[in-house]
Write a structure and sequence with these properties.
single chain, 319 residues, 7-stranded mixed β-sheet, 3-stranded parallel β-sheet, binds NADP nicotinamide-adenine-dinucleotide phosphate, YIM1/Zinc_Alcohol_DH_Fams, oxidoreductase activity, NAD(P)-bd_dom_sf
């Protein structure tokens, strides 16, 4: 194994992260430096998440990341070394993602991650699909997000009503993934449409988070004891969005009509990833890939991500 690797690194983000990332060469983490539960992996595929740019570009988020930093939460990789405490993985393909913004993320040829944030990649699942299943998949499992949330709700037998822009084949895609009813938010007033429904919901999930409209009507459209889940955080992470989450959580301590509120805090765990792997193997859920880039095209990948309209996951591979 070589001593050095290529990695995408940024030191300080003023503006867009893609303008701050430079491909540099640095040392491969030493196997002898691994601590309890850690594995050293050779990264095959990275899947991007909005947090990959929202955190480093925000004042609050950037305070959480030691810099210079390597971006990237999600990966599909081959294990090349493991701390003796790790008995589960040996030289095999794994997928998963960091649960907190890492200083040394997955946009590198090698990275060090906790084994408990990974699961074995099933033989019949493509590495790109494994990477795409990590943070978005586990977030969906704990509340719902985009294409994964639709499929998991369907796999659990729920009746699903969702919204999308209606651009291209978006409505057909939502129906194919398990939505029973789809609102095109550019053509119809989704809020009015939801309010006029006779049957109320057990669960309302806000995946966009760019307005409080859905939250405001949730007491009217939820069944007694129903739950409002906040996943989307709008266009950036700032003090205002953090304060809003705290305020809603406090209000939920005194629920009106017995409705509950919770904010999903993405957490990758072997257990959640194994559940998703099982559904993928059984054909109950599949990764939706919007686009693929090589590491040389990092700026283009981030530009696509920040449109907020990718139809599925954006993945990157070393080539
Ligand atoms: N709380 C957590 O732990 C957690 C974890 C992961 C992500 N997130 C947050 O969740 C949000 C979604 O993340 P993502 O990974 O799905 O990526 P994303 O790039 O934010 O989502 C893209 C998708 O959102 C749809 N969309 C955009 N605006 C919409 C609207 N007003 N109504 C309905 N659909 C809309 C787009 O469909 P159209 O093109 O059809 O509009 C596209 O399919 C982001 O705010 C992200 O930061 C939170």
């Amino acid at each position: 194994m070589a001593d050095t690797m290529k990695m995408g690194q940024y030191a300080k983000v003023k503006g867009n992260i893609e303008d701050a990332i430079h491909m540099v060469t640095g040392p491969i983490p030493a196997a002898s430096s691994l601590t309890k539960d850690q594995i050293l992996v050779r990264v095959l595929t990275v899947a991007l998440n909005p947090a990959d740019y929202k955190l480093p570009e925000s004042y609050v988020g950037s305070l959480l990341i030691r810099q210079p930093a390597i971006p990237g939460f999600d990966h599909c990789s081959r294990v090349v070394a493991a701390h003796p405490s790790v008995t589960t993985f040996k030289n095999q393909l794994v997928f998963g993602g960091f649960s907190r913004a890492p200083p040394n993320g997955t946009l590198a040829e090698y990275t060090v991650i906790s084994a408990s944030e990974c699961a074995a990649l099933p033989d019949d699942v493509d590495p790109e699909h494994g990477a795409a299943a990590a943070t978005a998949g586990t977030t969906a499992l704990h509340g719902g997000i985009g294409s994964w949330g639709l499929q998991f709700a369907n796999a659990m037998g729920a009746r699903v009503v969702t919204s999308c822009s209606g651009s291209g084949s978006a409505v057909d895609m939502c129906k194919e993934l398990g939505a029973d009813e789809v609102f095109d938010y550019r053509q119809t007033d989704v809020i009015a449409g939801l309010k006029s429904r006779i049957v109320s919901f057990g669960l309302v999930v806000d995946n966009a988070g760019n307005s409080s409209d859905l939250y405001d009507i949730s007491p009217m459209i939820l069944k007694p004891g129903g739950t409002f889940v906040q996943v989307g955080i709008g266009s950036n992470v700032d003090l205002g969005s953090n304060a809003m989450t705290v305020k809603r959580s406090l209000l939920a301590s005194f629920p009106v009509g017995g409705c509950k509120y919770y904010f999903v805090n993405a957490k990758n765990s072997t257990e959640s990833l194994e559940q998703i792997a099982q559904w993928m193997t059984e054909g109950k859920a599949k990764a939706v890939i919007d686009s693929k880039f090589t590491f040389a095209k990092v700026p283009q990948a981030f530009q696509k991500l920040r449109t907020g309209h990718a139809k599925g996951k954006i993945v990157m591979a070393h080539i």
